[in-house]
Batch of 4 targets.
Target 1
Amino acid sequence: MKLLKYSPLMFFALLFACEQVVDIEIPEQDSQLVLSSFYESGDLRIKANLTRSLHILSPENAGDIWDASIRFYENEVLIGQLEDQLDTLYASYQIGIDSLGNPIYDTYLIDIQRAYFLDLAAPLQTGKTYKLLAEAPDFKPAFATQELLPAPNVVSFDYKPRAGVSLDGGSVDLFKLGIQDLAGEDNYYEIALYLDDAYDDIDTTRFWQQRYLEGSFTPGVEEGQGGSLLTRDDLFNGNLYNIDLTTWPIDTTNRDIRLVVKSISRDKYLFSKSINAYWNAEGNPFAEPVIVPTNVENGLGIFSIENSTEFIVE
């Protein structure tokens, strides 16, 4: 048998002989307005953020756009124009009890946000169509429309502390919901959990902090952004659907629980799923790229109007 001998020089010659440099030309793209706004039923204020898109190789920071005009319409009738404002949020937390047994709170600054705001005379109405139109120098006008859907018909609700079991066998709190779905149309739902860890001393309203819902064994329930859960009525169109949700045990001694079930648009459903997938893929070089959908015409972003049914556990 003959043995073939190869020198290291021959190996590198073969290696570099197979190398081919390919120049990929990335086309130029015009920057677009990026508009985002989330409204929940009952609110008396519209808030919107406006930035711009950048080319994938751009070294710039997108930054906010403050020389824009953002107008709000109801059934194509102008309601008003959003104004650039600062929104300062304060909260307080309990630090003790006074001699009469009343709680003592300490106030602290949570955040200062600059955005576009419009104060409303009354909350938005179910069944009406609303539009946000943003215009800024050197950009095409961008707009998005949404309809305020009916609130979800939640016919049953129950909260059972430490009555559930997690995937790893641990004890978890259990929420049980029964949603009566509307027949003949595609419906999408989002479920979110909040705790009142603090109170806002400026306007005396509660400060609710969102907490992760750990999951559900109910078929058709998916993870959404920020710890929320999502479902659509593919499996129960027009029928009653019972859903079990779990979260890690909550100490309710000095706090209340708020569970919110929202009717959302298909746009918000896909957006929330994609944002959750985006954060799950962060730092993973083998994850597939996540495409975040948009419902903004002539631009990018998301405009969402949500109607909700909520439950307070005191």
Target 2
Amino acid sequence: MSDLKLMRSPNCAALCLLFAVPFACAQYRGPDPAATQARAAADPSFYLPDEPAPNLGLLKVRLRDYADCAAGSACYARDLDAQTTRAVELLEAAVAHGKPGERLALVLDIDETSLSNLAEMERGDFSFIAQECNAQASPARTPAIPGTLRLFNRAQALGVAVFFITGRNDAQRAATVANLTSAGYRNWQALYMQPDHPAASNDPVQTVARYKAAQRRKIVAAGYRIVLNVGDQFSDLDGDPHAEFSVKLPNPFYYLP
């Protein structure tokens, strides 16, 4: 096993299980399903349906192999480390080409960017959605993603202000601050969280992308130049103003618009 493999956090008290799929289904190690399907497709005595999506159980096998860096598969921890290393290099280049007196900023997402919910996702058979479970499962002991913590520390050493923008609701602020601090993140500039009761808006759907872009506008309005934005969802990075560099971390486990 790679020494980059993420720490597993203690089990949360509550999990959102969106599918009642037995945990054992993700342990399938039978015949290669692609080869079996190919043989069936070539056999005129088989009549196969035109299924619109891949088999969910088999997708979970692939997710577990990726998360666990199983032999012969891609490796989640290695991919995280590669992207965060790239982010450090981009940050250093931006600082090196900066102007004296500029207020530079790094923006970080939290879930699956700064902190890892991998243990909870595995426990929930990859039916755990961090965004929907934050109100139910205390995040107080979720571990840091090592590469992002290195990036955070490098930013502070270079004098770059760090802003967290998360889709978590403000009711989770105390637990989130405690978790970030215990995981090694300290002395950040600001933590932006969604209000518990958003004001009425002409926009009936406040997507994550729109919400996060609005928080970045506040950072720019405060006089900062956002040189780098790191997140695991495209919605962490999309929308104006863009950072000068945007780095997406791998997350095949869930999607947030």
Target 3
Amino acid sequence: MVWGIGAAGINLYHRVHGGFTGRHWEFGVRSYSALIARRACYSSLNVLQKVTEIFHEAYGELRPRAPAPVMHVRFYPFVSINNTIRLRQGEIYARVSDLLEGAPENVLHAIAHILLAKLYRKPVDRAQSARYRRYIASHDISAKARLVRQMRGRKHIRSARGHHYHLEEIFDDLNRRFFHGLMGRPQLTWSRNHARRSLGHYDPAHNAIVISRVFDHPRVPRYAVEYILFHEMLHLKHPVKLRGSRRCVHSREFHEEEKLFPELERAQKFLRMV
């Protein structure tokens, strides 16, 4: 089992590890990625020793009567801020994003607590969860995470020109009508497949808007394509904000500006049928 804890919440997955199916938990910020090229653990021994001690301390808090197993903790160059843990043959293997190597001890303790709590099916302390979320949502860490995604991650940019609609033409029209022509054009592309779960998204790390190819069809009204693209343009104008320990994806200003789209109700009704 794999748990993912990101900005949007907690998701459950299943994963097989090279012939071994074990208990494996992970949490991170997927969005969405590294300051240096992918490589093995690069942290110094004393830092790893300290992090391992923090994991032992968190283990003792969660399971005070149980003897601590052997722990293998290391920093790893994930594509995004991600942290994983698994139990294999009675030993714990934890990997922490290398972007968090310089994090304060209380943040590393929060990471250890969350991972171990998930591994042993214990309730996650709200204060620890909030501490972790606040740290990774801070300006410095968010900026580093975006740079990491640019350097380590890949973004498949195909073409803004579809069989029926041209995204750049629609973007320029919307830019003139709603943004006074002042919005810089990001990379625009149709998705690789006819996705229905993700109709569109804006990726700030690659400054790209991706629209599902399911809308590149003569039976799809232009106002529906315009609305999807307009919505993602608003994400470019109104970045995600942090309120306490929670990320605000659609702010009040976002919603107010979205209401300016003249075909809003028709477009939303059409999308519900997709």
Target 4
Amino acid sequence: MSDTADNNDQNKAGNTNGSDNANNANNPDNADNLSDQDIAKALKGFEEDFKDLEGFGADGPQGLKDSSAGVGENSGVGETGESVPPDDLSAFDDPLEAELEGILGDKAKAAMLITPLQQPELLSAFCVLADVSAYCIGAEQGAVAVLKNLAGSSPEAAAKDLTTVISGLSVVLAVNRADKLEAKLWMNGEQGSDFAPPILFMNVAEFVEDFMIGSTDLDGLKANGLTVVDSGAMSRGEALKVIAAHTKFRPGADGGTGIVE
């Protein structure tokens, strides 16, 4: 009888530990302990969920028709004497040199990734995983990532990296080079359709156009009450916690897939 009671106690203890482990696995505070395999599972189901997000699919924002008309043209951008939005919250170290690079097109004046996500924290977490440096801003029409690295083809590299790491996530990369605006769709690390900037601006948050043409900057957006999340201020562990908080696991043959909540 004594041996039977001891075995029952051990079984109960084992069941309790199993329950605790399951709770710990689903607890966002324990996201620091997630392995790369766990994160891969969490991201695996995003592709189908991104397809279901209303208003933003593989063709970009809702109502946005692909068009090469107007791409690369001066689409309402002011004269080169206008203020240039900095790629940092502080002023450029050398404003004259930065302005010259912007005029010549060696360095974009502004670049941003427009996404179907609404939460800037989640977009910032994705940027951390993809090693994309950006200020992420939430909007009902879709959160955007204002890119910090504007030199050369860095904006295109950021779009490629983000859509490669987060499979199924489509973004529109908007770039202002030498007062010429371009907008291109990116998905799964590949560049897609071109969009005429005026059509793009009709389907995204109003501040997107203001920022891209240089009529406002990050400080102005913050002053207007917009939430700005710096991916550079978020560690990988913090990013995993944010993703875990926005993700739940479905049971499946492969141990579960992640879906956006």
